[in-house]
Q: What sequence folds into this?
């Protein structure tokens, strides 16, 4: 769960790359996210694995604020906002199910209080979470794509085909994202901010290494954007489906060279034998 939460938080960061408002000293944008997660373990098998909540306060400069809290209607309020990579403060927590996630983070007012311990500067921003935009479709690779990933030849290009994204009418923005991670959690292939009408994504040959394990994350991203009158805000409803695969052990170039030379030598021997047999005849 921990690795999944970290990866999902990274992807949420990618999806928010264009969400920050116009810069001024202090907060530029705040957001919260209700994000269910699923695992695809077969060509037609997708199961829920829980989800995570995330809240972030973006700053014009990383020195504007160094801490703060998020106050909200749930029992865990207030939650701490701590410095994250980049100019932001954040908080995230995993949950065993979407139902428990929604119970822990219900409708209501979410208030960001951020402070600077050195200068005593402070600022407040709010999000009015009053309507949901839960996904109407769960991301899923089609059977041919899922099966094609298993033992994939990494030298060949590959097309990820997946189901249609049915956008929730409460969302005013929607995007498709696809990421592939290696076993160390590094993002080795990324496509994002694609139209919700997208149902296929091509990955060029040579992107992956031979004989290695990878995971994919297919994301249907829905957003409700707004403002509290001063600070722009976004509510994310990001539905993630992940899965695992291993590439085939493609021979190294040197091995291919030896194989070709070997076949060439075998061909020469066969030709000589055929020629001798013809002469004797």
A:
């Amino acid at each position: 769960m921990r690795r999944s939460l970290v990866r999902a938080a990274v992807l949420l960061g990618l999806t928010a790359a264009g969400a920050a408002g116009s810069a001024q000293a202090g907060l530029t944008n705040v957001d919260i996210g209700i994000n269910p997660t699923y695992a695809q373990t077969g060509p037609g098998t997708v199961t829920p694995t829980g989800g995570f909540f995330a809240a972030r306060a973006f700053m014009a400069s990383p020195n504007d604020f160094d801490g703060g809290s998020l106050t909200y209607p749930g029992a865990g309020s207030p939650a701490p906002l701590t410095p994250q990579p980049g100019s932001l403060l954040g908080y995230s927590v995993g949950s065993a199910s979407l139902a428990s996630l929604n119970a822990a983070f219900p409708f209501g007012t979410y208030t960001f209080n951020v402070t600077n311990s050195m200068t005593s500067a402070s600022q407040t921003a709010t999000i009015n979470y009053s309507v949901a935009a839960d996904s109407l479709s769960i991301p899923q690779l089609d059977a041919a794509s899922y099966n094609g990933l298993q033992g994939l030849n990494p030298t060949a290009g590959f097309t990820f085909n997946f189901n249609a994204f049915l956008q929730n009418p409460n969302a005013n923005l929607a995007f498709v994202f696809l990421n592939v991670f290696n076993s160390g959690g590094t993002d080795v292939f990324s496509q994002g901010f694609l139209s919700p009408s997208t149902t296929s994504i091509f990955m060029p040959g040579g992107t992956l290494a031979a004989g290695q394990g990878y995971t994919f994350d297919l994301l249907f991203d829905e957003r409700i954007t707004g403002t509290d009158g001063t600070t722009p805000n976004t509510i994310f409803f990001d539905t993630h489906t992940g899965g695992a695969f291993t590439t085939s052990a493609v021979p190294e170039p040197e091995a291919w060279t030896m194989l070709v030379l070997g076949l060439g030598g075998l061909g020469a021997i066969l030709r000589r034998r055929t020629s001798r047999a013809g002469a004797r005849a």
Residues 30 and 233 are 5 Å apart (CA to CA). DSSP finds four helices and 13 strands in the chain.
